[in-house]
Specification:
Bound molecules: NADP nicotinamide-adenine-dinucleotide phosphate
Helix content: 10-25%
Order of helices and strands: EEEHEEEEHEHEHEHEHEHEHEHE
Largest sheet: 7 strands, mixed
C-alpha cells in the first residue's frame, strides 16, 4: 500500500452559528498500517449527517465532540484492501464509523466489544443503502415511527423534514401502515417527489407558504395523530396546536435549531399535551441498537417487495465532503446525502 497516497479531512476550527468551509481542512495523511486484529479500508462512500453539526461544538451532546485539528469520523462504506483480522478478507465491502480519509484502519471484530465495522452484502442492494434505508437513517425512521409514533390505519401522520434521508422513509412507512400522510419540506420539487413517487397525501412547502398554520389546518382536517419531528422550531410550533386526543409527537431531530447561536424560546407545548392526553418523546437511534437486526430485516423485505423506495443525492469527490455536509442545512439533498470517494 506504500505506493498509494492518503488524504484526510480535519476539523480546523469550531463554528459559531452556521458552519463554513473554513471550519474544515484537507491535508495529506500517512498511509495507516493495520495492526493485529485490524483491517485497512479504502473509502468508497462517506455519509454526511446533521448530527455531525453537534460534534463540531466543544460541549458534549450525545456523541463526543470532534477534536480540533483531528480527523473527522462518520458513517462510511469501504472496501477491505488488507486484513489482519480473521473476520474480514481483502475485497469485503464494509460499513461503520470511518475516518474521513481515503484510507483508514478499523478494528476488524465482527461483533462484541471493539466491533467497528460490519460486512455489507453487495448482492442484496446497492452498497450505499448501508448508509441510508438499510442503515442508520432507515433504523431511525423504523423505530421512531413504529415504536414511538405507533401509527394506526386511518390516522393522520405529519412529517417535517419529509424529503430527507429519514423523512422520505417515515412517509413511506406511515403509508404502509395505512395512514394519511402530510409532508412538510423546503421545495416544490421535493414535494412533487413526495406526492407523486411516494404517495404522500398532501405536501407543504414551508419556504414559500405565507400561512404555514393555515396550510397545515387545511391539510389535516381531522387533526394530527402522529407528528414525526425532524426540524423543530416554527414548523413544529405550527403543528402542535393541531394534535388530537392521544397524539404522539416523536422528537427525532431539531435541525432548524442546530446552528442557532442563542437558545431558542418558542410557544409552550405542555398545555397541548395536557388537554389532549398526548405524549412527546425524544429518542436516539442507538437506543434501539439491540433491535437493529429486526429493523434491517423488515426494511430489507419491504425494499425487496418494492414497498419502499429510496432516494440518494450523491456528490462526487472526497474533497467535496465538507460542502455536501453544509448542503444539509440549505436543503440541497433529496433523500440521503452521500459523498462518492472511489468506485
Ligand atoms: N434521533 C436520532 O437518532 C436521529 C438519527 C438520524 C437523524 N436524526 C435527525 O433527523 C433529522 C433528519 O436527518 P436526516 O439525516 O434525514 O437529514 P436530511 O433530512 O436528509 O437532511 C436535512 C434536511 O433538513 C432540512 N432543513 C435544513 N435546515 C432546515 C431548517 N432550518 N428548517 C427546516 N428544515 C431544514 C433540509 O430540507 P428542506 O429542503 O426540507 O429544508 C435538509 O435537506 C435531523 O434533524 C437529524 O438530526 C435523528
Amino acid at each position: 500500500m506504500n505506493n498509494k497516497t492518503n488524504k484526510k479531512i480535519l476539523l480546523a476550527s469550531r463554528p459559531s452559528g452556521m458552519p463554513t468551509l473554513d471550519n474544515f481542512e484537507i491535508a495529506q495523511a500517512e498511509m495507516p498500517q493495520p495492526q493485529e486484529g485490524e483491517v485497512l479500508i479504502r473509502t468508497l462512500y462517506l455519509s454526511v449527517d446533521p448530527y455531525m453539526r453537534g460534534r463540531m461544538n466543544e460541549g458534549k451532546s450525545y456523541v463526543a465532540p470532534f477534536a480540533l485539528n483531528e480527523v473527522i469520523t462518520g458513517g462510511g462504506v469501504g472496501e477491505v484492501v488488507e486484513s489482519r483480522s480473521d473476520a474480514f478478507q481483502p475485497g469485503d465491502i464494509v460499513t461503520g464509523q470511518l475516518d474521513w480519509q481515503l484510507y483508514s484502519v478499523a478494528h476488524g471484530a465482527q461483533e462484541g466489544a471493539g466491533a467497528g465495522i460490519r460486512k455489507v452484502d453487495p448482492t442484496l442492494a446497492p452498497v450505499t443503502t448501508a448508509l441510508g434505508v438499510l442503515g442508520m437513517p432507515g433504523l431511525t425512521a423504523y423505530f421512531g415511527l413504529l415504536d414511538i409514533g405507533q401509527p394506526a390505519a386511518g390516522e393522520t401522520v405529519v412529517v417535517s423534514g419529509a424529503a430527507g434521508a429519514v423523512g422520505t422513509l417515515v412517509c413511506q412507512l406511515a403509508k404502509i401502515k395505512g395512514c394519511r400522510v402530510v409532508a412538510i419540506a423546503g421545495s416544490d420539487e421535493k414535494n412533487h417527489y413526495l406526492t407523486s413517487d411516494l404517495g404522500v397525501d398532501a405536501a407543504i412547502n414551508y419556504k414559500t407558504s405565507t400561512d404555514l398554520r393555515g396550510a397545515l389546518r387545511e391539510a389535516c382536517p381531522g387533526g394530527v395523530d402522529v407528528y414525526f419531528d425532524n426540524v423543530g422550531g416554527e414548523i413544529s410550533d405550527g403543528v402542535t396546536p393541531l394534535i388530537n386526543h392521544g397524539a404522539r409527537i416523536v422528537i427525532c431531530g431539531q435541525i432548524s435549531l442546530y446552528n442557532l447561536e442563542r437558545q431558542d424560546v418558542g410557544p409552550r407545548v405542555q398545555p397541548y399535551l395536557l388537554v389532549n392526553s398526548a405524549r412527546m418523546q425524544g429518542f436516539i437511534v442507538t437506543d434501539y441498537a439491540a433491535r437493529a437486526p429486526e429493523g434491517i430485516q423488515q426494511l430489507g423485505q419491504w425494499l425487496a417487495e418494492g414497498k419502499l423506495k429510496f432516494a440518494e443525492n450523491i456528490v462526487e469527490g472526497f474533497e467535496n465532503a465538507p460542502q455536501a455536509f453544509l448542503g444539509l442545512f440549505s436543503g440541497d439533498n433529496l433523500g440521503k446525502q452521500l459523498v462518492k470517494v472511489a468506485d
